[in-house]
UniProtKB/TrEMBL annotation:
Keywords: Hydrolase, Membrane, Transmembrane, Transmembrane helix. It comes from Nocardiopsis lambiniae. The chain crosses the membrane at residues 90-123, 135-155, 161-190, 211-228. This is Metal-dependent hydrolase. The lineage of its organism: Bacteria, Bacillati, Actinomycetota, Actinomycetes, Streptosporangiales. Pfam families: YdjM. Coiled coil: none annotated. GO terms for molecular function: hydrolase activity. It comes from the Bacteria. InterPro entries: YdjM-like.
Length: 237
């Protein structure tokens, strides 16, 4: 799927699991998710759902931070065997989740930096910016990302679940690509067969544009209505 579809799937995916994990313990983590955690988790998952495509030089995530992510793309593409190979595997999802979770345990500053980076990727994937003016788009993205990250920090958002959210977002990317014709080798490096190859719809084709993207957009709207107590959140006059 295209970047915007992957980003939307990350938002919908997080919103879908919130009611399932709310108030529960999972892998030693307590999930008491308020509005800040729901918003942060949705954006983190949206950004993480774009990470596997860092192996492609034209992907949204590769272009988000200019030369930094472009160089990273070249390195990861080489290490993981090219586009839709190692970065589209459960190995990569676990690797990213573990790295981010260790960062969360190590340093609060590292957490905020990583959240900032993922939110920036998410906003870019969701189409927040000006496609015809990369400079203006980058400035808008950076300002919006900084504002959201600071607002979440000021609200005392708890990020103990960050590693799991990143791994979950990466896995959501796999399922999105598995329903396209190219498929994904989710069991790489042990088994390189592409699951779903030649069985789904064409990437950026009519099914994705006219069915998948509208359905995911509706999912975001429904999730927002269901998860947030709007009367309590909106100011009274």
């Amino acid at each position: 799927m295209m970047g915007h579809s992957h980003a939307l799937s990350g938002v919908v995916g997080w919103m879908a699991v919130v009611p399932l994990v709310q108030g529960r313990q999972f892998l030693g983590l307590d999930f008491n998710l308020g509005p800040g955690e729901i918003i942060a988790g949705s954006l983190v998952c949206a950004g993480a759902a774009l990470l596997p495509d860092v192996d492609h030089k034209s992907a949204t995530v590769t272009k988000t931070y200019g030369k930094v992510t472009e160089v990273l793309s070249d390195i990861l593409s080489f290490l993981f065997g090219g586009h839709r190979m190692g970065t589209h595997s459960f190995f990569f999802a676990v690797l990213m989740g573990v790295i981010v979770q260790l960062l969360a345990l190590w340093s609060e500053l590292a957490v905020q930096i990583f959240v900032f980076l993922l939110i920036g990727i998410a906003l870019q994937g969701l189409g927040f910016g000006l496609d015809k003016n990369r400079v203006a788009s980058g400035i808008i993205n950076a300002l919006a990302t900084a504002a959201i990250t600071l607002a979440l920090f000021s609200a005392g958002t708890n990020y103990t679940w960050l590693g799991l959210a990143v791994a979950f977002g990466v896995v959501l990317h796999f399922f999105g690509d598995m329903i396209t014709k190219m498929g994904v080798p989710i069991f790489w490096p042990f088994w390189k067969k592409r699951i779903g190859q030649n069985m789904g719809f064409k990437t950026d084709g009519p099914v994705e544009k006219k069915v998948m993207t509208p359905l995911l957009t509706v999912g975001v709207i429904v999730g927002s209505i269901y998860l947030f107590d709007w009367p309590a959140l909106l100011p009274e006059y």
